[in-house]
Amino acid sequence: MFVAPLLLLLFGPFAPSSGAQLPNEGQAKDPPIATNGQPFPWDRMRLPKTVSPIHYDLIIHPNLTTFDFTGVARIELDVHEDTSVIILHAKQMQISNVLLLAPEGVRPLQVLENPRFHQLALLSDSVLTKGRKYEVQLGFAANLSDSYHGFYKSSYRTSTGEVRFMASTQFEATFARGAFPCFDEPAFKANFTIRITREPRHIAISNIGVARRLLEDNFDTTVKMSTYLVAYIVSDFLSVSKTTQHGVKISIYAVPEKIDQTAFALDAAVKLLDFYDDYFDIPYPLPKQDLAAIPDFQSGAMENWGLTTYRETGLLFDADRSSASDKLGITKVIAHELAHQWFGNLVTMEWWNDLWLNEGFAKFMEYISLDITYPELHVDDFFLGKCFEAMEVDSLSSSHPVSTPVENPMQIQEMFDDVSYDKGACILNMLRDFLTPEAFEIGIIQYLKRYSYQNTVNSHLWESLTNVSDLDVRAIMDTWTLQEGFPLVTVEVRGREVRLSQERYLKTDDPSLTEGFLWQIPLTYMTSASSTIHRFLLKTKTDVLYLPEEVDWVKFNVDMSGYYMVHYADNGWNSIIRLLQHNHTALTSNDRASLIHTVFQLVSIGKVRLDTALELSLYLSRETEIMAVTQGFGELVPLYKLMEKRDMPALENQMKGYIVDLFRGLIDRQEWSDSGSVSERVLRSYLLLFACVRNYTPCVTKATQLFNQWKASDGKISLPVDITMAVFVIGARTPEGWNFLFEKYRNSMQMSVKSRMKTAMTVTPLQDKLKMMEQSLRGDVMKTQDLPDVVVSVSRNPHGFKLAWDFLRANWHTLIKKFDLGSSTISYMVTGVTNQYSTREMLNEVRSFFGSLTEETGSEMRCIQQTYETIEDNIRWMDTNLPLLRAWLDKHRHKGPHEDL
């Protein structure tokens, strides 16, 4: 599954992901009672291993008029222990005509239901014998889901205003059980033969190709796979196709009026599937790979084997209207889902505690694959940001290990977060760098070949990588996957002697929480005397290494290939600051970005004074590289956003003025065009948008002029794509401009254009227009799938943050029903709306609301604890650093007035 990346620091990321059901205990407190009052014969959340499925024969008939479906599941079983009870999953469906098909004949089975764990018990009056095979047959019926999981209904509006309906699936992590009775755990792999009955005006697609197509589509039998990867769609989509060099048919499916936006994705999918086929040295095992753009979709995309599903914005690209950011985003999401066809589908984690084996690898492979297949995208410029995002969550005491015990569906859904995806990718990148890319590649190919069509745990991966190196990979990596957080390495240079020590980096005022942590850290470093990268494995709390000669400076964690921070004690930071001020290109862009990130993070825990971090930031006036520039914004912008929430306009404007002055030269050099490399174009969009939002006069004047021309042409003239966000943001400041944008949004078929319009409309100072949150919740013009982005973007708006918080509280029960407890969508809204609060009053208000929830309405969600910690950290930061900030800004008062800021 793909959770879409950071769009803009100013407005927050797209991060919706798949959903979850109500929380449950891992084991019932009292013996469970079935719905008919009888004792239920199984009392655990996880299924017993007495039987396992071999093959499912499914007949499914969705009705897109009544929005329900019926079906029959025939499941072939292998019996591992004598038993008279079969336990499997079914959720919110009517079960009927349950039969045991045994060699001795057909007989009915008694059915008991335990809705708490979504379980059925099928009771036989005779024993199923170990070593024999049986079949069970179950009739089932249910409504198409109103959420974004299970077998759910979706709709789209044509250009003439007609609403058309379709049905699609989203089964990860625990939602196949809402579509058909099944053993809904990843280790219960089986083959699936699916038949779908439909109307003549629709088509049906599934994981594997169609054997014959009448009004009932009979699909060939799938390869052996987990239930969460099963997929089928009934729609009126059109498709375009190409064949890879290895003979796999690739097809892109989309609604008819958007099929002309599929050419880029089709070419990318062909190129990337060929790349993975060669890179993994394992042929893609299916005859086809379909990619479908679904009008209603909660996550970024989903890796169903042979039928990957996407948000429309994740697949559709218009060469004339899509931006460089759109191209980067689409290639990354396709690379992610196709990597899953090996990591996740071919080799699957045994249980959701090791979800990172799927998601960390897929995130990591996005960058490996695109670096080779699309070098012009410069994906390396964006990888570092994923590690910083992971560290933001991982620096809280409410973080969790990469590999974490989970039982109930809510806990499982909470695993789809920055730790599993981004931290997972970053520690893999660290290991690859330390082992060498060549050895790492050989090791993961061995892992995939050895465990094809099987389920794995962490140790299987470490064993394969240890085989290709002289390191004990498991000993190293267990310290990164089995304990939460990450290390801060303190470096003291005394002549040729370098003293090293490690501790957990943690934003807390309770030092006891950092005790007891120890990592094996693959350190890398370079010095002023040599550009050679040296390596050293720090296994202990403290150690010493010796340089061949005394040096002016030493830089650890070269290119930030390691998932750790470095503190330069004594005079170390002053040496770094001098280097950046006099010769910043002596270090790579990634090194500079990591230094900016680290020095401000060390302010948060009192290791570095704020004025030291601000002195380092002064060099940014000469910075031009995207990673370092955006990280500069990433550390400085939140400072005035905290002041916004405290109503401190004078200091807030002073801080804004400093940032504008810092980047004024770079902003002034930007052309209002689409020229340059992808990184240059993405940076241009970012800078001009920032300048317009901050009322930098030259930008506001130019954007106003362009918006007026565009509006006068009724939106027909073509604006340079990469600057449209800045233009739309300025246009949305007036009622007439906002209304014009909304009408264009309503009628546009270009998904990337709609996305930019949507964000611009949330940035308006017109408070009455920010009620678009209510409009998005209804979903008639602005789809409900976009609501999380709208709410978080409004919360970033100084005129809207209170509206967003009030909206979240007022609609909480609707939101958790639509998007599911534990989902990263709910987490994204909770943290996105609250993470800039910095007063005791708001902390109390937040605690009061979340404290009033029950377990069934989300009180146990990790994101709530993260929210409390973040606000408390903000309060500490402001109380400690405001006097320093005021004094430093007075000392460096920016040249020229910025009364308009």
UniProtKB/TrEMBL annotation:
EC identifiers of the protein: 3.4.11.-
Enzyme active site: E337
UniProt cofactor(s): Zn(2+)
Domain Peptidase M1 membrane alanine aminopeptidase residues, every copy: 264-480
Residues annotated to bind Zn(2+): H336, H340, E359
Top class in the EC scheme: hydrolase
Membrane topology summary: Single-pass type II membrane protein
Keyword set includes Signal: yes
Gene3D superfamilies referenced in this protein's UniProt entry, alphabetically: 1.25.50.20, 2.60.40.1910, Neutral Protease Domain 2 (1.10.390.10), tricorn interacting facor f3 domain (2.60.40.1730)
Localisation per UniProt entry: Endomembrane system
An annotated GO BP: proteolysis
Gene Ontology terms, MF aspect: metalloaminopeptidase activity; peptide binding; zinc ion binding
GO cellular component terms attached to this protein's record: cytoplasm; endomembrane system; extracellular space; membrane
UniProt keyword list: Aminopeptidase, Glycoprotein, Hydrolase, Membrane, Metal-binding, Metalloprotease, Protease, Signal, Signal-anchor, Transmembrane, Transmembrane helix, Zinc
Signal peptide span: 1-19
Aminopeptidase N-like N-terminal domain sequence ranges: 53-229
Record Pfam families: ERAP1_C, Peptidase_M1, Peptidase_M1_N
Family as reported in the entry's similarity comment: Belongs to the peptidase M1 family.
PANTHER family: ENDOPLASMIC RETICULUM AMINOPEPTIDASE 1 (PTHR11533:SF156), PROTEASE M1 ZINC METALLOPROTEASE (PTHR11533)
Protein name: Aminopeptidase
Species assigned in the record: Seriola dumerili
